[in-house]
What does this fold into?
Amino acid sequence: PPPPVPPPPAPPSLSPSPPPTPPPSTLHILLPLYIYPQAVPGPGGTLNCSSSEWLAVADAGPGVTTIINPSSGPVNATTSAEGPAYMACMRVLRDAGVRMLGYVPTKESFEESPGFWVQTDFRDASEVDAMVALWAAEPFGSLLEGIFLDEASNMWSHNSFNTSDEHVAYYRARFASVRSARPGWTVAANSGSPPYYSMLDAATGGADLIVAFEQNATKWDPAWPALGSYPRPKCLDLIRTDARSQGAHPPGPWCPYCYNWDGVDAVVSAAAGGSSGSAFGALVYAANNGAGAVPAQAAAAGFSYIYVTDAPFESPWSALPSYWCDLLSAAGLPPSSSCPPLVSVATSAAWLASRSAESASAATAGSLVSYDPPAGTAGSWWRDRAYAYDQAAAAVALLLHGDAQLQPTVEAILQGVSAALVWEQDASIAAAPFYWDVTSGAASATRFTGAHAWVNYAFALFELLTGSREHAATLDALCGWLAARYDNSTDKECFVGGANVAWCSTEHHIDIYFALSLSAWLRRSDALDSLARAAAAALVGPLWHAGEARFNQGLGDSSSALDCQTWGALFLLGHNATTGAAAAMPASERGERAASALAYMHSTFYAKQQAPATGRLARGYAPYEAPPGQTKAVWGEGSYGAVLAFERSASHEAAEADLLAGVAPLSLASGAVLYAANETVVNGEGATFFDWPSVASTAWRVLASAPFASIFWNESAYAEVNGTGMPTYTAAPTAQPPPPSLSPSPPPAPPPPVPPPPAPPSLSPSPPPTPPPSTLHILLPLYIYPQAVPGPGGTLNCSSSEWLAVADAGPGVTTIINPSSGPVNATTSAEGPAYMACMRVLRDAGVRMLGYVPTKESFEESPGFWVQTDFRDASEVDAMVALWAAEPFGSLLEGIFLDEASNMWSHNSFNTSDEHVAYYRARFASVRSARPGWTVAANSGSPPYYSMLDAATGGADLIVAFEQNATKWDPAWPALGSYPRPKCLDLIRTDARSQGAHPPGPWCPYCYNWDGVDAVVSAAAGGSSGSAFGALVYAANNGAGAVPAQAAAAGFSYIYVTDAPFESPWSALPSYWCDLLSAAGLPPSSSCPPLVSVATSAAWLASRSAESASAATAGSLVSYDPPAGTAGSWWRDRAYAYDQAAAAVALLLHGDAQLQPTVEAILQGVSAALVWEQDASIAAAPFYWDVTSGAASATRFTGAHAWVNYAFALFELLTGSREHAATLDALCGWLAARYDNSTDKECFVGGANVAWCSTEHHIDIYFALSLSAWLRRSDALDSLARAAAAALVGPLWHAGEARFNQGLGDSSSALDCQTWGALFLLGHNATTGAAAAMPASERGERAASALAYMHSTFYAKQQAPATGRLARGYAPYEAPPGQTKAVWGEGSYGAVLAFERSASHEAAEADLLAGVAPLSLASGAVLYAANETVVNGEGATFFDWPSVASTAWRVLASAPFASIFWNESAYAEVNGTGMPTYTAAPTAQPPPPSLSPSPPPAPPPPVPP
It folds into this structure.
């Protein structure tokens, strides 16, 4: 089974952090030392090794084993050019105790691309043995300790050119050859991937050491080094789809391979158990962020040799890794003499204490001078300046370091800060200056809110941890200054950056939040708590960048900085989920936001930089994104902040150790930490970060590793801190009275609550759909050449089906006529006569027509993409207008459509606003002069200049303000197959997103207060522009959707929506022309079939039941109505159990009491067909039966049975009748017996003799048993329902693809698994339901992702010959290549209901209802499929016959009480829903006995939170 879904991160533990787990002591470094050595002459003609890399390896000592490879094998030590240097450096390694293996290749291969070698055959055995012999001979022989046989892969990823036996025989012979050449030598073989098991066991001739992994780091752990991606990839993603149901190994050497599939299980077990008789090794390259968890993961897998490097795939072994010293430490090897010793955190804490002591005689005694610049640095003030933030950070770090001996230092720092504070308003408010001179006490006049908030937090933390109120008055005064920084004006509602600073900073708000939150807790102050909540509201609202899933730098500033992301993550993870000020946001969302902010941080700010002060390469994070060509600084303070954020975030748990190692080169032997690795200009404004010892960086190093760091910025610590084992601080509480309550005037309004997860569906009858606006018109670019045929008397009659369909639509349509990018001569041109014939038909039908005129010079840069270069000459435009105005066109048209009137929003602005408007207003006048009374339409295609409007003053009568594809109208449409769904904000450039976005519609791509469109938007919405507005939307593949309603809401009165593509959007009518007319509220066209009401479909179901009144199973509905002559008479008599149940459920929820007799007849028919077992105590529903004879199928499918069970239960719930109570109990008994609680299943099998467990069945079972359990108040049935739910949220869910599997061990998919799965996730009661352990937010996310997968996989279009229309809906399965997808009626209406329930797809329901309408016949029956179709690779056929199941789902999807279906919230509330009063009276049957299946299944483990 897949690993449990991880819970949202718990609040950090308040116990002191344990010391880091020591690396395993048995690891060795296996180093491919493919670096040419250098040597220099020494005394007496000797050669001395001078290669820094070889000498560094020698310094590492006996824990390292190297592979020596002079030239893809050995060379002659004396005659080759490189031989002498190799001998000199190999002797140095030997003397240092470093073991060496000689390299020998074993395959013929060629380099297909840099670094990628293709093996073609075994290398001749004699050639391999000769290389071994050359290594064994002196002088190499006595230096080496073995041979490394490379290329011993068994060809996992290439053609298998040899069998297992041949492969093993070849290599075992080579192993023997090595042992013969030099007895006692080690035999190492590099398989690079899992070897054949028989390659192992040195005692029986196998290898001593096998390298079973040689790949890049992302094959060891796909989430590493990709910290910059969220969600983070995992090992399961490396496994091919058809094997994923087997699960995946954890990160490590077996990560790319699958349990029970790739044949690696025996090797994996042997390595882990140490029973293989061989040692295992791994070579990991392209590991850019350090060795990470590789040593621990390798040891856990039973590996004893590792090597990790950041060298790339093309040349992984050509240099030592940049983090060589860290790798040795991570592997648990003794420190190398060439690596600087690690500086302890205690040394850094002592350095901070020493900085405080240095100011003992100063005016602000106890303050720490913030930097220690080198002697001779210009600016003496650097040597005396103490920054307020640095003092607070040092005090916080030393408090949480937990050494009671440092408490005097903390008190001295706070005294020094107190001396520097600036007191205001009769000493009732105190402000922390930005910095001060330690010696003189002179303070900066600047007050920054963020630095002040840190000081506030330090005083509050001191009071929390010591219990001392020594600084209580100071703390209250600091809070008072913070409170006054809140600006509650409606355009801000945030804390400004200082006393005279207007901007609002994200970083400051994080500081403020924790300062005020802790102070509020200490004072039990509602006023302070309200202020903290205001800070939190800003952080989760306008300071969050939803489009890029990270924090902005400030209000109205969408740039970013490192601390905004790291501290922002700490904010999201650090407040108490019950009492905290941002508690309205679910914990799961906070965890996701934190993880995505850290992912953004890594991808944007990660840096490497040499630190000259320590001579080592540092790896960490830069404060800002560096301008092009500028180096990123590795910033000590910020990088240690990232360490703490990584430690808190469950999504980045492995990064903490990497980063601690990476930033270690910033620590000096004194304990001080450099501010930056090297002096660096860090932003475009010239700010410089110096490589000086820094109080802030050192404080953050101490804080990041402090034993009590979990208390920092953690609201859960407030009430629990006394139980944490904190050292006993000795400060005694003073006798000061408690401070007065702070009441800032006026207190800020509380932030708006975060919206709750979607509520369960309403149980009131669904209101009828909102009618489309009646004022909409279709504006149709009819760029389709008409056809005409001769008629009586030499006339021409229009014969174009498209033109005639437009004529049928009537006066609600206005067309644009465009014969040849403008007019043609009606009599002399070839196309003129056909145009005249068809235009007369439109005129007679009341269709308005506008003549097309282009207005720009342009060229087609690519298909469909025209670049406008200049205005078309006015005389040329006016001449085209005159040609349209002349007869015979003039009396047919009602106006002119001036195209290309864009003001060049997206191109170079080659003309000014005045020139543009003057040109077009002159053309408008020309049109009105040519034919007074004509309509003037102009196609801007995007928001026009405001002065193009107002027909009364010479502007356009109609302006087309949108001509783009559907994803610019609504980015989430037609992309139903993506989750999360994109939104309008994603279309707006990054620097404008803080302004917010318009809703989906014509203004979606434009920004408030930014793009200059606000006046036009307001005028359109208010109808005050004096012009009508229109929109042309193309590439809308899924139907007109919400366009009509959205256009009307924006004040538009003309629309057109088509699924034609960008390249030729106006060359055909949309496939959903009839649906578009209906969506726009136009009268039905005579060429469009009338809509069939749902009531007609319900009546058809009732008629099917009545037809069987005299049959053995009277009341049953024959499932299909095949055409006369269809082979197989049984089609005309067969009733499927599922269809009966679906019809009964649909008719019950349709709510027409007159249909209750039909429901009762259906249930009586089903009852007559049931098969009773075990002395009639259990009843099974046959898969189908013959309506006439009653003969039943011997097959019993659990899913169909569960539907029957649910139908009987729903009847009892809605009517109160216990007429079928015994039947319901007997049906439950059969279902209970289908549960298999064996550990490899724990699921419901598919039938009486069926072993597999189906996802679809489990959904049916869940609701059947859940409702039955509620009716019977049965714990046994409830336990079974919970077992079904546990399977659905566990092994039946495909975590890798975020959708449901088809069954246990079957990771394929089917439509119903996704639609019904979404209904399951959305339909149970969040308090009492059987899957309640999963948070509502996660259920909603899973449902949305399942439906997105469904749309991208199963969406289909198919002509329905029975109705002559194109249907749009969903196929039951993914069609095999080259095979048509069927539009399946039953499944498509199931998707309608799922869309209706899912808040993420609310607009799709109407689209789909229109798309699947062509399956409905005039009788009310719904076709099973649009056309006869083979639907899967096994030849199953879906027929285009009227179907009970499809019709039932149509009725159910639109039923007034559909919200009761599969909705646990309905059980207790159904009597108050306004359901019709059913008349069946309860019978006098006694209540049924409790069901106790024997033995009852063990309850499944709880669903992981």
